[in-house]
Write a structure and sequence with these properties.
The complex is a heterodimer of chains A (616) and B (352). Chain A has 616 residues and is mostly helical. Chain A has 23 helices and two strands. A two-stranded antiparallel ribbon of chain A has the order 1-2. The two termini of chain A are 38 Å apart. Chain B is of the alpha+beta class and 352 residues long. Chain B is 26% helix and 7% strand. Chain B contains eight helices and eight strands. The longest helix of chain B has 33 residues. In chain B, 24% of the residues are buried. The interface between A and B is large, with 101 and 83 residues.
Chain lengths: 616, 352
């Protein structure tokens, strides 16, 4: 490895002094903002709910201790030590490993492209929240004004607003449709906002992060107070947090906990490397890593409390309305006076009627209303934010205000994650000196934002939602795991564990303890390898399929399970494996370059030697 | 990564609601009263034609006297002779709705535990009656009879006054029924060729505790009922007036076969989201332009005045000298314990 790296990879990209954070708080808030994202709100509570409530916290914190914090510390340390973005760091460690940096860079740009589409949707909902009544509260009437639009009636007004009025989704991924102009307009706006905040790199990001990182916590607190005072919230909390210990025997729980902590901390993007590269070299990155990781997990927990209380309220509400519908059926069928059966009396009345006139009761088609059924309904991802939560907000007094707060919070959460993402793309470009020195940084960030915007126009098509799922599932998940694994292995075994420990000791003042060394050397790589193998196994089990919203489907509103067509499957494969192939590709390229250089040097030596011998 | 679209639901858990003892009042009461809400009248004497409770006829005949039916029992209330008769009934769910060709005009009894309970008679006995039948449950045992056209032209109305008004709910009594008939007559008068509709042409029947009843509109000759289409159209056009007369709305005053016209959504000329989007976007664009301009100005100022030379010292501090691909600093600390007191950046450059 004693070979000089190429001249273009040496030194700071800008030629001037490297930008610095104004103060430590900006750096911490940036890392927290990058780590805390939409997944903390809509993925962690779902996992908690599915995997036995409080019992899920056990594998989660174990994964945090043995995988999350060590990997995070490692990323911060190498960024701070080598003071470059991801590409620069890896070419510094070894030119053959430059592919890892390039791969991280590619994955970050792919993710940045589709992540902003989610922000676009959030922005659209935010803009639509400034009216009373909220547009998703009622179905629109159909053309003759005699009833509601059929699609809306069969599903629900919130689903209709999401699938039809926002996405205008087609029934098939093959059917691309045209561009949704309102989404395009919101996409332009959200990229403009991202550009505004990263226009001068961390100079502007550092100022914007004060708002975007702290505002979500303010809103979460407001929602906590509101949520806990809602009827049905405490039942939701107790039911959903009650640990069901036997679920821990399912290996899927441990896999999902490890995966969640990995993605939640946004490891493998290169964003944390970029952020810490702007730190002063003697900064206690160990304390930072532990602090930020714990803040991230606590935020997840905090958000879970709020989500569960709102879900409890929604379940109580739905249960009450289910009872009301049944009561109305009974009243109408048996001609009892209006409002004569209260919700508490319903069970007794029904029992009595079942005994006396069972056939009539059976003919009514009453729904079964159990509170647990409503509490067990869970959703994650966009389903939670845009369908479940929007419906819960409808029933809160002062709904538009809550909607504005909620979507504002989601927007700022996503925005701070986008900062990290774009930083992971821009810092390596700056370090590599892609643009000549006289080109100002604003132009570079502008070009990066513009190219990402142009690439993300594809997600505003009618089938955009399906494509986003493709990107999310295949471009992001597998690659990040692979790159994190390669990072750990590269640092520990190629850079050298001792050298790395010395670096850390130089930066923080203390040598890493046994815990760190063991986790870096053995535990984390093993965990990452297990995640990777499990992922491949799960993917290979069935042909990849997706759920389509098809009003023509006979079991509508259940989504139709379609298999991806061939060309989409090829795209999935490409997305999954192309970034990883960059690693051996770059290594090979470096090998060839050196080989040629060695040959040239050897040839030059041969030319010189006969001259020397001929000189005497 | 944000998106995960897997909804999840597991099997429902057993019901947790406690079993309570049956209510004393309501269900038993309703059962004793029957579907029509009458207090059972115990008859000491055997049935006479005067107590006829149902009419079967094969002929077209004008509707008989309408029974006086109220929410509370009103003992001693005698039927009016010559009053219009009951409207077609299809309250009983065992009994198919009016669209069937055969129809029974009757006021149904309910039978609590064997005793025959007779609600108020519908009409006085007529000599032209072919037969009269006492209905005992189940009603399906009765024979079908030729149809009277009133059946198809009758509409069921359902009111939910307490849901709409809560504490301010009024009781549904005969006066309210009169008002309802007046509103229906008023609506019919607005239809062409029906300007002569009177309140007495509107017949109400089978008022229940739910507050639901059937009504039908007859023509001035009182021989035929008006076609359903006309009545439907009239009611639809005046639905708002009828609702307002009773302080109800389309959901609380339901005409079961008449769909209501939904209010089209009042869209503002410019959707609100566009306005707010415009505001935000303009702010963002202005901010971007300002930042770019200030950046250009800063750079111009920096180009004019040369930068200070002391940058080089910082540069040396911050860059890692790399020789042969290995950063220099760790080499310093290899082997031996580093005394941090001496390990400061300034050592790199001996001060002048």
């Amino acid at each position: 490895m004693a070979l000089a790296p190429g001249p273009d990879l040496l030194g700071d990209g800008s030629g001037d002094e490297r930008p610095k954070w104004d103060n430590k708080l900006q750096y911490l808030l940036s890392c927290v903002g990058f780590a805390v994202g939409l997944g903390n709100i809509w993925r962690f509570p779902y996992l908690c709910q599915t995997y036995g409530g409080g019992a899920f916290l056990i594998p989660y914190f174990i994964a945090l201790a043995f995988e999350g914090i060590p990997l995070f510390h490692m990323e911060l340390a190498i960024g701070q030590r080598l003071r470059k973005g991801s590409i620069g760091v890896w070419t510094t460690i070894s030119p053959y490993l430059g592919g890892i940096g390039l791969g991280c860079f590619t994955v970050s740009s792919l993710i940045g492209i589709y992540y902003n589409t989610v922000l676009t949707w959030v922005l659209w909902y935010l803009l639509n929240s400034f009216q009373n009544p909220l547009p998703w509260s009622a179905c629109p009437p159909d053309r003759n004004l005699t009833g509601f639009v059929e699609e809306c009636q069969r599903s629900s007004s919130v689903s209709y607003f999401w699938y039809r009025q926002t996405l205008n989704v087609t029934a098939d991924i093959n059917d691309s449709g045209s561009i949704q102009w309102q989404l395009l307009v919101c996409l332009v706006a959200s990229w403009a906002i991202v550009y505004l905040c990263i226009i001068r790199g961390i100079e502007t990001t550092g100022k914007a992060i004060y708002f975007t990182a702290l505002f979500p916590y303010l809103v979460l607190t407001i929602f906590l107070i509101r949520g806990l005072t809602l009827p049905g919230a405490t039942e939701g909390l107790t039911y959903l947090f009650t640990p069901k210990m036997q679920i821990l025997q399912n290996p899927r729980v441990w896999l999902d906990a490890a995966t969640q902590i990995f993605f939640s901390l946004s490891l493998g993007f290169g964003g944390h490397i970029a952020f810490s590269s702007y730190n002063p070299p003697r900064n206690n990155c160990k304390k930072d890593a532990v602090t930020i990781a714990l803040v991230n997990s606590m935020t997840s927990l905090y958000a879970a409390i709020i989500v569960f209380s709102v879900l409890g309220f929604k379940a109580a509400n739905d249960h009450g309305r289910c009872l009301d519908r049944n009561i109305l059926s009974l009243i109408n069928a048996f001609d009892f006076p209006d409002q004569s059966i209260s919700r508490d009396d319903y069970a007794a009345v029904l029992a009595h009627l079942n005994v006396t006139q069972p056939e009539r009761v059976a003919g009514l088609g009453l729904e079964s209303c159990h509170l647990e059924d409503f509490l067990d309904k869970s959703a994650s991802g966009t389903g939670l934010a845009f369908i479940v939560f929007t419906e819960a907000i409808l029933h809160m007094p002062g709904a538009p205000g809550w909607a504005v707060l909620f979507f504002g919070m989601l927007f700022t959460l996503g925005l701070s994650s986008m900062f990290g993402n774009m930083e992971a793309v821009i810092t390596p470009l700056l370090d590599m000196g892609v643009m000549p020195r006289w080109v100002p940084k604003e132009v570079l960030t502008g070009v990066a934002c513009l190219s990402c915007f142009l690439a993300s126009i594809h997600f505003t098509l009618h089938s955009g939602n399906y494509w986003l799922e493709v990107f999310d599932r295949y471009a992001a998940s597998l690659n990040l795991v692979i790159f994190a694994f390669l990072e750990v292995v590269g640092i520990v075994y190629i850079y050298g564990m001792n050298r790395f420990c010395d670096d850390v000791a130089w930066m923080t003042g203390r040598r890493p303890s046994l815990y760190w060394r063991v986790t870096w050397k053995v535990v984390s790589p093993l965990l990452l390898l297990t995640i990777f193998v499990a992922y491949i196994a799960l993917l290979a089990r069935a042909p990849p399929s997706y759920r389509a919203w098809n009003p023509q489907y006979d079991q509508f509103p259940t989504q139709q399970e379609n298999v991806y067509p061939g060309w989409v499957q090829v795209t999935c494969m490409l997305l999954s494996f192309l970034p990883v192939l960059l690693v051996p590709a770059v290594a090979l390229a470096q090998l060839l370059v050196r080989h040629r250089r060695k040959k040239k040097a050897a040839l030059q030596d041969m030319h010189l030697k006969p001259q020397d011998s001929g000189a005497c | 990564p944000p998106a995960d679209h897997a909804p999840h639901s597991s099997a429902p858990l057993p019901e947790r609601f406690p079993e309570r003892e049956p209510l004393r009042s309501l269900p038993g009461e309703a059962h004793a009263r029957g579907h029509l809400g009458y207090a059972p009248l115990r008859l000491a004497t055997p049935l006479t034609p005067g107590d006829v409770i149902s009419l079967h006829t094969s002929r077209q005949r004008p509707p008989g006297p309408r029974p006086r039916q109220g929410l509370k029992s009103r003992p001693g209330h005698a039927p009016r002779v010559g009053a219009p008769s009951c409207c077609p009934l299809s309250q009983d769910l065992d009994f198919p709705p009016c669209s069937l060709p055969w129809l029974y005009l009757y006021c149904r009894p309910s039978v609590p535990s064997g005793a025959l309970a007779w609600p108020r008679p519908c009409s006085p006995p007529r000599p032209t009656l072919q037969s009269w039948t006492i209905f005992v449950r189940p009603l399906r045992t009765a024979k079908p009879r030729p149809h009277i056209d009133g059946a198809e032209n009758a509409f069921k109305v359902r009111l939910s006054i307490r849901t709409a008004l809560g504490d301010k709910a009024y009781a549904w009594d005969t006066n309210e029924e009169y008002l309802f008939k007046a509103m229906v007559a008023f609506s019919m008068r607005k239809v062409a060729n029906r300007e002569k509709t009177e309140i007495s042409h509107v017949l109400l029947c089978n008022v229940t505790q739910r507050v639901s009843f059937w009504f039908v509109v007859t023509d001035p000759s009182e021989k035929h009922t008006l076609p359903a289409v006309e009545v439907q159209e009239a009611i639809r056009m005046n639905r708002n007036r009828i609702n307002n007369a009773f302080f109800l709305n389309d959901q609380t005053l339901e005409f079961l076969k008449i769909p209501s016209t939904l209010i089209p959504p009042t869209d503002p000329p410019v959707p609100i989201w566009i306005i707010i989007f415009g505001v935000i976007f303009c702010i963002v664009i202005v901010a971007i332009i300002l930042l770019i301009l200030s950046g250009i100005r800063q750079r111009r100022r920096k180009d004019k005045g040369p930068s200070e030379v002391d940058d080089t010292e910082d540069k040396c501090e911050n860059t890692i000298t790399i020789e042969n691909g290995i950063p220099c600093d760790p080499l310093d600390t290899k082997g031996g314990h580093v005394n941090d007191a001496f390990m400061t950046e300034d050592e790199r450059l001996t001060p002048l």
